[in-house]
Amino acid sequence: MNAEELRDLEAQLSEQFDAIKQRGLNLDLTRGKPSTEQLNLSNELLGDISDKALADANLRNYGGLQGIPEARELFSKVIGVKPEETLVGGNSSLTLMYFAAHFAMHLGVEGPDSAWMYEGQIKMLAPVPGYDRHFSVSETLGIELIPVPLLDDGPDMDEVERLVKTDPLIKGIWCVPRFSNPTGHVYSDTVVERFAQLGKVAGKNFRIFWDNAYALHFIDDNAAQLANIMDVCRKAGTEDSVYIFGSTSKVTFAGAGVAFLGMSERNLGNFSKLLGMTQIGPDKINQLRHVEFFKTYEQLTAHMKRHAELLKPRFDAVLKGLEEGLAGTGAGQWITPQGGYFISFDTLPGLATEVVAMAADAGVKLTPAGATYPYGKDPDNKNIRIAPSVPSIADIEAATEVFVTCVKLATVRHWLKNA
Ligand code: PLP
Asked: Which residues have any ligand 1 atom within 6 Å of their CB?
């Protein structure tokens, strides 16, 4: 397009943008949480389980730090470890991740002498774009974050291996291996194999924080599967190098689910000793509710199909809007995820902040640009995370139309500056 054509297009898009602003919209694509319809799928959890709970007085009492045996059995299958390697806790896996990082940093993964902090400025690797709350955990604990690019099949493993080999103060890496937040990528078998080798080349007490938050959260029936990291680590003799996390936050109730953790028995023993300083036992009644509700792993996965039926049309609405509005324009690119909670969109470099601000001006709230990078700084200022699970389809369609207009307008203005 020549400068004159660009100017015409800019005028046309500005007019569209002003018309949208007049509509006084108030839409929100920031919330990576289940919709009310999704929460309703699990309302049976609120039924009466008093007979079962009364059958064993221990359930209502203190104790059982690692969770009730039935819950350990059921949720061990979600994270692919043995029941005796599983701890089932309270409602938040993020809490377990924070404790794991805090304990490693200050109290040691194997007794006080092994605390990371005694070795110097500790670092963790952060595949980017990634989950902001992982990054906040490290930042809060004074752990420096080193970004590593996330490729289509997982983190850039050449870079990961190079870094951990050269710097023994790199003590960990954050991962969302299936339906990564926000890109939706699933780590390939080769990448998982390479992860299992890291424990052999990294500095001492290195730990992989394998946050399998979306283990079951497919939206596409044929979504890629994830290799079992614990099995591969066991073969490589590195089973102590991985901590695996999961929860039912987006399976049952985000505020009242159960979280779980998988580790080698040796790690679990060490972790439990320290966890025992923070609580005498978890909410075992809620664990029982979950076991009674699902009964089997098969029923648990069938339940996820019902979530997919609610989520898929919402994802499709965003993708259709992007496709119709932006395909072939060169004004950005996006990934079609097979699961998870997000669509990751890249503007042209330098434009994300502007697009988010314009959308806000037009009544569509988006996650702040930069949120998917350590310290909130996207060096290319291009990544935007779109979360379509909560709004109605009509609202998603309207919000996507606004988003597309903002992307086009910001891009055309950028092209004009450089024309
Ligand atoms: N891990 C990832 C990758 C997430 O996206 C989220 C929530 O969005 C969480 C963990 C939070 O998990 P929980 O609710 O179990 O604390």
From this structure: 32, 92-94, 131, 176, 181, 211, 213, 247, 249, 254, 259
CA 146 – CA 161 distance, rounded (Å)? 13
Share of residues in the chain with pLDDT > 70 (%): 100
Closest CA to 286 of 252, 245, 326, 327: 252
Q: Which two tokens stand for residue 373?
A: 């990078």
Using the mean position of ligand 1's atoms as its centre, give its distance from the Cα of residue 418 in Å. 41
The secondary element (H helix, E strand) that includes residue 210 is strand 207-211
* Residue indicated by tokens 């990751």: 344
* Long-range pairs, 271-277, Cβ under 8 A, ≥24: 271/87, 271/99, 271/100, 271/103, 272/65, 272/66, 272/87, 274/99, 274/103, 274/107, 275/65, 275/87, 275/89, 275/99, 276/65
Tell whether pTM > 0.70. Answer: yes
Say how far apart CA 408 and CA 349 lie, in whole Å.
Answer: 14
Side chain identity at 199, as an amino acid letter?
Answer: G
Q: Give yes or no for a contact between 321 and 401, defined as CB atoms under 8 angstroms apart.
A: yes
Each residue of 185-203: pLDDT tens digit?
A: 999 999 999 999 999 999 9
Question: What whole-number percentage of the chain has pLDDT above 90?
Answer: 99
Say how many residues make up the chain. Answer: 419
Ligand 1 centroid to Cα of residue 129, in Å, is 15
To test the pocket of ligand 1, the residue of 30, 176, 210, 249 to mutate (highest count of ligand atoms within 8 Å of its CB) is 249
**Gap from CA of 78 to ligand 1 centroid (Å):** 15
Q: Is 54 exposed, middle or buried (0-12, 13-18, 19+ CB in 10 A)?
A: exposed
Is the pLDDT at 104 greater than 90? The verdict is yes
Cα separation, 60 vs 62, whole angstroms: 7
Going from the N-terminus, what domains does the chain have, and what CATH number goes with each? 3-30+301-417 (3.90.1150.10), 60-295 (3.40.640.10)
- Give the pLDDT mean for 260-282: 98
At 208-227, the pLDDT tens digits run 999 999 999 999 999 999 99
For residue 15, count other CB atoms closer than 10 A to its CB.
Answer: 10
